[in-house]
Amino acid sequence: MAQVAIHEAKKALRRELKKRIAGMSDDVKLKESASIVNKLLGMEEYKSSKRISVYLSMPSEVQTEGILKDIFKTKRDCFIPRYIGPNMDMVKLNSMEDTMSLPVTAWNIKQPSEQDEREEAISTGGLDLIIVPGLGFTKGGLRLGRGKGYYDTYIMKCIEKCEKKPLLIGLAFSSQLCNELPVTERDMKLDHVISFEPD
């Protein structure tokens, strides 16, 4: 599949997935989020990770507040994405209170301001685990992001600078699961995708 065709296929699928997610009620999103987060918290790989990166969830994403609370409760290091122009880094979050006081960007996500000097994960030893957001996922670990390539670029940088690949885990609502996804070699494959399985 040529690059242009893949690009077009991704664009069409992003629209379709956004529609699917928008069709979920808030109650269903909360119910699925709670189930997915519980599964993650029970994973040995999660329990043994000391330095963890988590995205601060938007309403259209699996809610990550429960993960943040668990990281702070178990006294581990928590890092969150900060987007500045075309770059993303992972900066340290100190507490749940710290989250509440973060400014909101034009994209309506909370992140520390550019002037806010914080520890960056790669410069202090890398990450054990990255919870990777996305619009679509396959059970086998393929992911469709929002099209900016922030995470793929950051993960490559992690591998180059820290000489170890962090464990990559995606969290997926039932409506975000796909049988297959158009991907290129630049798209990083995830180690696990935790999704909501109806009983």
UniProtKB/TrEMBL annotation:
DNA damage listed as a keyword: no
InterPro entries: FTHF_cligase (IPR002698), FTHF_cligase-like_sf (IPR024185), NagB/RpiA_transferase-like (IPR037171)
Primary enzyme class: ligase
Annotated Pfam families: 5-FTHF_cyc-lig (PF01812)
Cofactor section: Mg(2+)
E.C. numbers: 6.3.3.2
SUPFAM superfamilies listed in its UniProt record: NagB/RpiA/CoA transferase-like
Keyword annotations from UniProtKB, A to Z: ATP-binding, Magnesium, Metal-binding, Nucleotide-binding
Catalysis: reaction(s): (6S)-5-formyl-5,6,7,8-tetrahydrofolate + ATP = (6R)-5,10-methenyltetrahydrofolate + ADP + phosphate
NCBIfam families the record matches: MTHFS_bact (TIGR02727)
Entry's family note: Belongs to the 5-formyltetrahydrofolate cyclo-ligase family.
Name this protein carries in UniProt: 5-formyltetrahydrofolate cyclo-ligase
